[in-house]
Amino acid sequence: MNFRTFSTNALICTILVSSRLFGESFNHDVWSLKEIDDKGAKYSLEFENLIEVLQFAPHTSERISSKSILSMPSFLGEKTNFKFYENSVMHPNLAKRYQNISSFIGVGIDNPTHRATIVLNEDIIIGSIESENGTSHFKSFDINSENNELLVYSETNDHQGIVCKPFNNHLDQSRDFPECIGSDDPCYPAGVELVTYRFAAMITESVNNSEADGTVEGGLTWLVGSVAYVNAMYIRDVTFQLEIIENNDELIFTDNNPAPDVFNQDCGGPWETLGCELSVVDSVLDARIGTGGWDAEDEVRVWDYGALFDNGHPGGLAYCPGPTSAQVPDMWVFSHEVMHNFGSPHNYCGEGGIRTSIGGTIMSHRVNETYNMFSTHSTEYALNYQETVGPYGNWWYHNGYSEELTNNMIPQLLLPESGFTIPIETPYILEGSSEPMDDNYTYNWESNDSADEPYSSDPNSTDLPFLLPDQGSLSTPVTPHSTGYKRVFPDMDVLLDNEYEKYGIDVYTGVNQIVEKLPYATREMNMRLVVRTNDPYAGTLNHKNLRFFVDGSAGPFRVTSQSDSTVWDVGSEETITWDVANTDDPNGVNCQAVDVLLSLNGDENFDFIIAESVPNNGSYTFIIPPTIPTDSTRVMIRASDNIFFDINNGKITIQNANLPSISLTDELIELTLPNDSLSTISIGITNDGEESSVLSYQSYPGTDFQFDVGFDNGNLPDGWSTITNADCDNPGWFISEDASSSYFTIPPGDGYYIATNDDACNSDGSNDMLFTGPIQLPDAEISLSFLRYFSAGFSQSLHVLISTDNWETSMELLALGYWEGNDEEWLQETINLNGYAGEVVDIAFHSNDNGNWASGAALDDIRLGIIPTWVNSDGHGYVNYMETTQLEISLNANGLEPGLYESKVVVESMTTDEKDTVDLQLTVETAIVGLDQSTIPLVFSLGQNYPNPFNPITQIRYDLPEDVMVNITIYDIMGRTIRTLVKSKQTAGYRSIQWNATNNKGKSVSAGMYFYTIHAGDFRQTKKMVLLK
């Protein structure tokens, strides 16, 4: 048996546990979906549990990571996880008078750009969710009397007819941008300072009655919800926030204290009437609460921006720029009008204003390829206006009531060198990065081109030209994401469907309009990479421009072979052809070499390299190398030193009859760690199968079962019990090998199982309960799984319940009703119990005939699976015949009690049923402070270079636990070798080496991102670094 033992005779390097690696705090799902209809999704809310989670939320100003995590619903019935923070949108004196009103902001976990808000006031709850599932809202002004049920709806769907008309728009935009708009780098990056504006809002009694409860406090609570929603996006994108003024309760009108008559006039038409109301917002606010807005001096101004919310209007109207707006009570309209106040015009291609988009932003909704966000042109207008007044005059209210330096780090963006040329109608990839890069950062690419005339994105337009050949945007922005620094045009899913244009529905017109169009004529292209840091207290946004050109005499560049389904055999000779389409012209695109790549799974990952830098002559013949069997391979031909490419149309089946086999270097690893540390160890995975085979593998921590109940002996486990109200031969739950009856036929199982049969019993089956008895759950990842047969006939239902207080109260984990029945086979259910880790729980299975003649339910293989949180391994990859790759296993002893812990890691073949395991035995000891570090490390490791970024010298640390041959090589982002730093046999020890930013020829290299890789025996690891100049 191969095994390794590590001890603390030599103190290993320790680091704090990574919460992202080993899990955040528990996720609390307090929303249970009831039904979905055309109005939205109805949920049941565990209101008290939600309040309990939010009680521990830190304030945004603490600038720490929150452990208060909630799963938030959408109108589509889907959910998204958020970290929640307390924040405040009211003046402190107003907040003191209304202490029951509290507001919270949520930051997305999977995508930190996502936002959610919750506002509470005793039994009032108001909230919003911005996520990949769209924009959703909910509110209740008496949650307890409504049985804790809430409708989650979409304002956009409800109000598609609502539009906006900026008032006194000073900009009739031509293609020439105003100063500091559309620049290569922002004049004023967002995030240097947090700017607060005093906000005064009037709510008419009509809005108070329709949106709130008709009271002053209820109307104020609704207003807090609206401002919280707006602030969530403005803090993220421009680092601005609104603060509701201290006497805003005087502006909440009721039936007993109605709004002024000037808000009830008729000026001849809906927009004219709204314009009349907008024109007096300033004067009414001045008369009611004091001087403010653009005509007030600093020393007497009490409000900076003001708004009116009133019903009966077609949308919103705002001064652009200016201090006031008037709109219907709609949150996304409100967020739109405020940005007009800050100076941004619309940015839709078919209007006046600045024509930088064909949809997808708050200032140009149209096709919503994103949830609500601002384009960088809108943020530029707002920031320039705040800093300099921009092109609009010289009013001082725009500076803000307070400006707080944030001490934010502004990420710098790294892009390819500008000035290259691509062919027409050819897909391309834009890719950049930032320095630093952080898990909370998100990125997206957007157009930085405008047009000197309006145009349409509707292919059937008769009023405006369909796009413009040599100017204007050809795409919408897309949702920012942690990997959004790379964008394929058009979307790779579109290309994989053999299309070259992407379409989407215009929410205003219902027209299926263009969303992504490849450039089709000679022109200049400008694209921006945008980075957001997503800090909920004071976010940062930065962007940088990439300029390139399109050659109308070249293209389209197309792969012409394998256009239909094709079969390849490993070892056979195949030829790929493509249409060069003048892309090799030295005076044009000048592409002299291409790379040939495969996507083995038919997805966007073209990571299997066939050849690099082969001549761009239209044909390449090669021998199919060993690879995994696959039936969905696609081919990509990509320019070696440019950004354009194409893929073939047909799916390719690659046949490889040679079977791989898994061989692990270790069967048992024993490790001793202090309980304030974590360690990463490596094992080797060798493919010792048949020659020319390729092993595709994945790894994961093995699951141990706290119980695994198959009823094999025909009895209940010790401690389990049943109850029933039925009176018959087999009442309630009973164990059998065949529990079927005439109207409830259960498919054969693998022996005994447990079931109820109301058809056979025909008695009171409303309270058939199966109890597990108390279970002490460990601190681990926990899942309850079981096989079930459930036909749902005749009103039958099945419920899984859990209790933490010996059934004084309980929570429903799963409910199966009529629509969840299955008539032919056993199905597996899995329930996540991570939220109950560390607690003592009782679990029950409730079969309920709901007072009618019903069918029943059957259960088998009831398992409580435990995956320890102290071990993590999620490796995957390919191993060629008789090659070995290293699999990393992370062990986290932080906070564990001293003692012995056991687990395992499973390595599984993705193409066969083979699995192998390595057993882990972790001995945890109490950490001892003050031990000297041994001169011999316990494990191989590669440290992060320091400094990073650097110019021009950086140091790389690496640890060798044994004498070994070492190779350390530096590569550029294209995978080309830049410098070999080490290539020799070295003795064990802690080592380091410097790199002075030169290549193997001693010449200085350009700024950008580089990768450095160590090969030491079987140990391999790669890290990235950034050179600045």
What would you say this structure looks like, in words?
The chain is mostly beta strands and 1029 residues long. The protein is 10% helix and 39% strand. It contains eleven helices and 65 strands. The strands form 15 sheets. The protein has a seven-stranded mixed β-sheet with strand order 2-5-6-7-8-9-10, sandwiched between helices. Helix 6 (216-237) packs across helix 8. The two termini are 53 Å apart. Residues 3-26, 157-161, 169-175, 390-394 and 929-934 have low confidence and may be disordered.
Features:
single chain; 1029 residues; mainly beta; 7-stranded mixed sheet; 11 helices; 10% helix; globular
Structure at a glance:
The chain is mainly beta and 1029 residues long. The chain contains 11 helices and 65 strands.
Structural class of the helix and strand makeup? mainly beta
Query: Number of helix segments?
Result: 11
What's the N-to-C terminus distance? 53 Å
Question: Biggest β-sheet: count, sense, barrel?
Answer: 7 strands, mixed
Low-pLDDT residue intervals, each spanning 5 or more residues: 3-26, 157-161, 169-175, 390-394, 929-934
**Which strand-content bin applies to the residues?**
35-45%
Radius of gyration: 32 Å
Number of strands: 65
